[in-house]
Structure prediction request, 471 residues.
Amino acid sequence: MKLAVVGLDSADWTLLDQWLHHLPHIAAIRREGVSGPLESCRPPVTIPAWKCYATGKNPGKLGLYWFAHPNFEKRQLDLNLPGDMPGSLWELLPRSLVVNTPGTFPPRTIDGVMVSGFPCPDGEAFASPPWIVPRLQGYRVNTRVPPRHPDFPREAMELMKLQLETFERLAPRFRFGQVTVFHIDELHHLYGSDSIVLDAWRMIDEAIGRIMDLADNVVLVSDHGSGPMKEFVNVVPFLQGAGLLRLRRDWAKAPLRALQGLARVVPRRWRAGLRNRWILPRVADAIQMRVEPLHEWLPAASNQLRHRVDWMSPVMPLNQGLFFRNPAANGNGRALEDLRDCVSEIPGVARVWTRDEIYSGAHTGLAPDVWAEAVPGVELSARFGETWERRPPEKGAGWIVNHRQHGIFAFYGRDVDGHTVDAARIYDMCPTILSFFNVPPPPDIDGHVLPVRAERSEPPRQPPRQGGRPR
Ligand SMILES: [Zn+2]
Prediction:
């Protein structure tokens, strides 16, 4: 294998650097390769971020801003399942192996093998092409228990190990490979820098060591960073206070149970009518594998949004600081200024961004009107029908770590030279990885090639050959 990428969901140098004496392979990469912080997309969340990484494009070109988006016409939340979206770097490289990268369900047909990652419903076809399926006996995408179950850490560890070993077993046949360690994100969220998390990193480090033996070059990358939390802030009461969001009477005491009930009653109709673009009962199962606030909130969200929210409200908030103006509201929603003013007054908001300030491309119309960047350590939540405004994290009762804007990157191996890279963005990873294969990046990407390759192996730049893939 010429180049292997190990995706490390939510990896952050502030934690890893403290533990380098326990992690000899990551330490070697840090010492001998080229590494640094990697600026993620806004907001820095898993589903858009891995897609921005793979395509080199900002969310405005992808139309992908979060795990889901509000559908004002249908009064529901639609789940984003962007596996079909074209343009990922593994589609530009012959003989690729991709294992467990978030946002790759449903599996797209590539020149190689695609094994989809989160969110991926249990019981669905998660790998292509068909010949690979019998070779994946025993493979799983999801943990068997949800986060916060006492068995979750052991279960997550086992699953990460299984996914890494599957990658290592298949890798020798391929030129490019990517395996993504996803559940480490859950462990960070719930256990911070606990010994459970260190044990997981030791296991991951050993796998990285084996991958260093089987690939000429190894790249480490995360979709965003992570760090200790100070507090949760619920944006809903603030929007209500400003008259930007109205709720209906809280009719459902247990919205999650209500949704599960709904799932048993109408699955066939949902399947036939909505296909897998929407929150389906079967998808809700996969989503429940996420931690708070997502696993508690997202499965219930479609139900909550339908029944709890007054759909003529001017604004719809989602978790992680996203605010959408309602095009169906009277007078086409309240002015952007009102929304900005309200959001900038919410405690823990560091900066209010409008969509035009952070996105560009054909799909910016789907973007949140406003994204509130929180102070590091503050988690902005949208909890409909809950009156609390601020509360501290509690270890053992949910997240104690949340996402950060800067994750990590590292390049190591035969074709890497010890340059320093001052500022790297997630969009730069795709063109830089393609450069190891002398494949020119697509013209409409937002990233640039980082100067990480050794001078001696710098090839002359050539235009792509007509009718064939460059090799
Ligand atoms: Zn992530």
